[in-house]
């Protein structure tokens, strides 16, 4: 008997809902989810219904959805991946900023050296 959890296939917009719910406490109304995503509440609700059918969410009441253990696992993984990607982007931006600053510092030093050379003539 196979006791491994079955894999659930979710679309990027569905994954975004799971990620938001994971980050925001696991329970949220469809209108609030829609605001987080920048979509209509009708669209957010249709995504939530699909996720409910897939076993990732459960309907708490007519307007509110909550993560199931399956949804929580997917949301946690998606959130970790997003945070790692953001951290990598920040590190890359910091590296670029340091490079630009080094070039500016070198240019200033060169201009200062030229100015100092003109003053001694």
UniProtKB/TrEMBL annotation:
Segments of skewed composition (Basic and acidic residues): 83-94
Annotated region (Disordered), positions in chain: 81-121
InterPro entries in the cross-refs: WH-like_DNA-bd_sf, WH_DNA-bd_sf
Membrane-crossing segments per the record: none
Gene3D superfamilies cross-referenced by the UniProt entry: Winged helix-like DNA-binding domain superfamily/Winged helix DNA-binding domain
Name this polypeptide is given: HTH marR-type domain-containing protein
Taxonomic path: unclassified sequences, metagenomes, ecological metagenomes
